[in-house]
Amino acid sequence: MTISQGNNSYQRRSTKCRSIYVLIPIFTLLFFNLSILLIQASSPVITRDISDYRLENGSLVNFSFNKSLRQPIIRVSHKVMPGETLYSISRRYFNSNEFAQRIAQDNKILKPSVDLKAGNLLIISNPKIIDVYKVNAGDTVFSITQQYFNREWYTSYVQYINGINNPSIDVKAGMKLLLPSAKATTVYTVQPGETLFKVVSTNFKAAAYQDLIIKYNGINPAALKSGVDIKIPNPFYTQEVAAKKSYNYYIEIDKSKNTLTLFKNNELVRSFMVATGKSKKLTPVGTFKIANKIKDPWYSPKSIPGKDPLNPLGTRWLGLDVPNTGGTKYGIHGTNNPASIGKYASLGCIRMNNRDVQWLYDHVPVGAVVIIKN
């Protein structure tokens, strides 16, 4: 009886072991598939590289697309020259020193004095300026434009980001196409009889980028001189140009001079002295909009009510729509310390004298563009 019970117990243990051995590969497979799904979910949805083009200076420019953000991505390969620094490279591609740290991070440069060497190749992501072109005899602005923004690569670009394998068959009336443009990516409805080339020709005109190059460099296209360097702007990085063209009112804040200038219909209206961040990084650089306007704002960090003489925000607040701030972190506001105007004194906001910010408050609407530059 004892032996029989032992055998039964052994058989039960054997059955359990066999069951476990059967389940192990099943659980392993499920875990592997789940891991893949989690990795895919956490990874950015970026298409593979669409095309590479060699620039005048020998660098490569690459075009790709982030589908989740509907954002074009341009990457330029830069060969480091003797004497160059991260700051000089940042100025070349962004007209600013502010992007030096981002260039270092993108290229995993921990110690620039050691890691940045002549001959190294750096990847510059979404530069403001993609190239500097030296004008040759016989060049026109249009011929220069065609070298950078021709319909051939753009047609391939639109074809890929929309998943079109055969344009002659796949492009049909009524379908929606993503069209990345200088201002923003738009959705275009294909009309009866339209081909992909016709859609691109209608919506993407080299002449538009010709005008962009002219405005960006402030040149006279009829008097283009051989040997002159022309900066070729990124066609998808034109917020400043678009802002000046599209809005009656816009504000320019120059951190190098601590000035705020109001324009209407591209005509200067009035300029003021302001105070900006104690360090260069505190006041954000970029193109924003006025998100809200508040009279006698409450200073929340210290619970100081409006109209209180101790309130550092003064009498008016014009909040900026800096991403992830809700228009409450950065703004143009008054001050209870007029002696700070003209200096680098704030925690990131733009300070004005109370009488000046009250005037601005009365003349500038919500939605007006604010361009902050170095």
**Secondary-structure element order, as H and E?**
HEEEHHHEEHHHEEHHEHEEEEEEEEEHE
| Spatial arrangement of strands, main beta sheet | 11-10-9-18-13-14-15-17
**What is the number of beta strands?**
18
Span of the ends, CA to CA = 93 Å
Q: What is the overall shape?
A: globular
How big is the Rg? 29 Å
What's the number of structural domains? 2
Category from helices, strands and their pairing? alpha+beta
Structure overview:
- With 374 residues, this protein is an alpha+beta fold.
- The N terminus is likely disordered.
- The protein folds into 2 domains: 158 residues, no CATH class; 132 residues, L,D-transpeptidase catalytic domain-like, CATH 2.40.440.
- The chain is globular.
- It starts with a helix and ends with a strand.
List keywords for this structure.
single chain, 374 residues, alpha+beta, L,D-transpeptidase catalytic domain-like, 2 domains, eight-stranded mixed beta sheet, four-stranded antiparallel beta sheet, 11 helices, 33% helix
Question: What's this, in brief?
Answer:
The chain has 374 residues and is an alpha+beta fold.
